[in-house]
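Lab manual, section 2.4: Encoding a predicted structure.

Procedure: take the sequence of the chain (141 residues), apply the prediction step described in section 2.3, and record the output as structure tokens. A sample record is shown.
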Amino acid sequence: GTSIPPDVMRQLRSLLWGNQGVPPPSWKQGFFFSRHAGLQFGLVQRQGGPCGVLAAVQAHVLAALHKPTSGFNTTPRTPEQHAALAAALAESLWAARVGPAAFLVLPEGEAAAPGAVARLGYDQLSRAVAQHSATTKEALV
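Recorded output:
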């Protein structure tokens, strides 16, 4: 990926989070699927805050779990959940792109290690990301 210059990162943080430049705690909850039998297709919101984002992603998750030949999968296993979430996020990013490419920002190096997001502060994490581009939705997934 391509590193993001500090001034661009500051502008992005200001655009997303206003003068504070950091997300409120309720926005740091991530994406988690329900563990209740028959509801494994549903994303769980643990705190208030990002309900609009979760609702939009949930709609795309549902679409990804529906197959014309077999119908709707209400009991996806973890690999199917992960694939549906990746497809849902890619669908949202692809629809929001400007121009022929979509862009995705991902943690790199130490920030990409398991559990690093919870261990690192937002400032440190935002310095350890890189921009990636994709010219097809499949590449974005």
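Check your result against the sample. The first strand starts at residue 2 and ends at 3.
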